[in-house]
Structure formats: structure tokens, C-alpha cells
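Fold it.
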Amino acid sequence: ALQAFQEFAHRAPLNGAIPDMTASTDSYVELQKAYKTRASKDLEEMRKLVDDRKNGSDVKISDEDLEIFCKNVFSLNIISMRTIGEELRGANLSEELIDSWNMATFDPFEREPEHTPFLWYLALTASMKFQELYGHLAGRDKQELSQQADCKEVVKLMEKQIQEMKLGENDFLKENFVPSMPNFAKEMVRYFGAEIHTISSVIGGVASQESVKIIAGQYVPINNTYIYNGIASVGAVYEF
């Protein structure tokens, strides 16, 4: 019904809300009336289109539900994402994704750029790839030589990750991540997949909030990866 409406009206149904603007009281009131009148007519047209498409179906769409749909039509979003397997293999890589990653580096954590969550994503992904290669996380053996060897391997995986993501020429990474990769790798090896209760509570809170969004069918959920840096208490959402 929405598609049919857009085909003949060349726009989505109005929701009756007036955009922010500067106006006199009289003109604002008149404009508000015009918007509400147009929104009411659009709602009536959508009602007809929905009813015409039932084709004998028992599906019932109440006037209230249809009104809510029309009011929120401008908030409709399609969220598509790669699977974790595709993400780790570097499959289905698009120019749009690469552009979004480069854009993410334009908004670093101001006080300490090295704590920008995107950089820790690169470190975490390298750690996951280490586990995929060797069957365990880096840092299992607490002997110093083993820890150093794991650090070197994680650094290699980080370097490979940057190239796979087509970020080798990114100035922010060259300045804030590449020289510090041994430090990031050392932290990955040191923590060995530990789960700290305070960090788990933050992540659990975010996960439960997003679950409620999906279950209730209200509000737009995170798209698609949330990285939380507990060292600096800063989080960010990235598309991968």
C-alpha cells in the first residue's frame, strides 16, 4: 500500500508534523491546519489502498495501527549486514563499507585517539583470527617467550586486517594505530578473553535495550556492531 501511494503521490504520507521553522503565530497555525488536513487525507487514501490489497485475507489492520504507521513512515529503515563469517573472511566488501570505515576515523576519541573504539575493533578481530588459526586465544601460555611470540603473530594479523579492509593509506591509522600495534597486541594477549563483571554489565545493558527494540518493534536498533572501550569509558557503533 505504501509503494502504491508513493507511485501516484510521488512522496510518502504526511505525518502531520511541521518541520522546525521561523514563522509568525498566525501563519504557523494556518500551516499546522494545512499539514493536519493533508495528513488526514493521506491516511484515508492509505486506508483504501490497504483494504484493496487484502484480497479476502483475514489480516486486520486497525485505523490506530495504520495511523501509527503513517506517522512513523519517515523513520522506516532497512538494515542489512554481513555475517560474522563474511566479516572475518573479508567477503562481500563494498566501497560503501570502506568509505564508512574511513569516515569513522575522522571522529576519534578526542582526549586519547588511541582509545578510539574502531582501533580496538581491529585488535579484537585480529585476536579472533588468531583463535581461528590456532584453536585458542592469544596469551594461553603465560611464559614470557610464548607471550612475545603471540604478540608478534597478533601484530601480523592486525597488519593483514588493515590491508583486507583497504585502510592501508588511512592517515589516522598510520599515525595512531600502526606505530602502537605492539601495545594493542600486548593488551589482547594479556587479557586472554577475560570477562570483567563491570564491562559485562554495560554490554548486557546495551544488548537488553536492543532486544527490547526488536521485540517491541519500536525504535531503530543498533546497526550493527557496538564496541565499548572500558579503559576510557567510550563506545561507538560501526557497520562491518
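Strands lie at 225-229, 234-238.
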